[in-house]
Amino acid sequence: MLFETYADNNELCNVSISGRTTQDDKFAFRGDMVIIDGDIADAKGRRLPPKSTLKQAVALSSAESLSMVAGAIEDVADIKPFLAKYETDLSEDTELLFYAANISKSLKMKVDGKTVTVIPHDEGAVWTLLMDDLCLEKSDFKGLSAEDKVITMYDALVDFTPRFDTVDFDEALSYVTEVKRETRGAV
User: Fold this and answer.
1) Given 37, 59, 126, 168, which is the most exposed site by the fewest CB atoms within 10 A?
2) Residue 68 and residue 155: Cα distance in Å, rounded?
3) CA distances from 100 to 73, 76, 116, 157, 163 (A)
4) Short-list 158, 151, 157, CA closest to 19
5) Backbone phi, then psi, for 156, in 5-degree steps?
6) Which residue range is the domain that position 81 belongs to?
7) pLDDT > 90? residue 71
8) What is the pLDDT of residue 30?
């Protein structure tokens, strides 16, 4: 299973779901996926925390390839290193959707032969955003295991056909904006 390999290679963190679905040869994952590893911290080869992660990732795989990956990224430029890191596990049919904090416009981008849907995101849970964007209701998940809920999400993502502009990666970078976060807390 791909997710076991990723876990063995320290490419997953904050795992909430990782397991087999009720469908043969389908595995579900929810958690964070490492995009850029942290620097080596000591002589034993231990690493500092990752420099970049795909946060709150929702992923589905077969034994040999990823069927779907969705999640949140801080910088749209992290899409290229994500594709490079996981390229051997991506097929031409892999559904990719990223919520990016620093992009001003929803679009589809062509990157290294893959089509990636990118939607602006400033806050909120990825699972909830996906449910809204894919027009899913809580009742669509009723009675399903946590792993099988990812299959429902995948089926909806396959049917998701937004009318976003399709651009190449370099043009997509022209829509990058500065991320401004509100600070919250006691006043």
Assistant:
1) 168
2) 10
3) 5, 6, 12, 17, 18
4) 151
5) -70, -35
6) 2-175
7) yes
8) 97
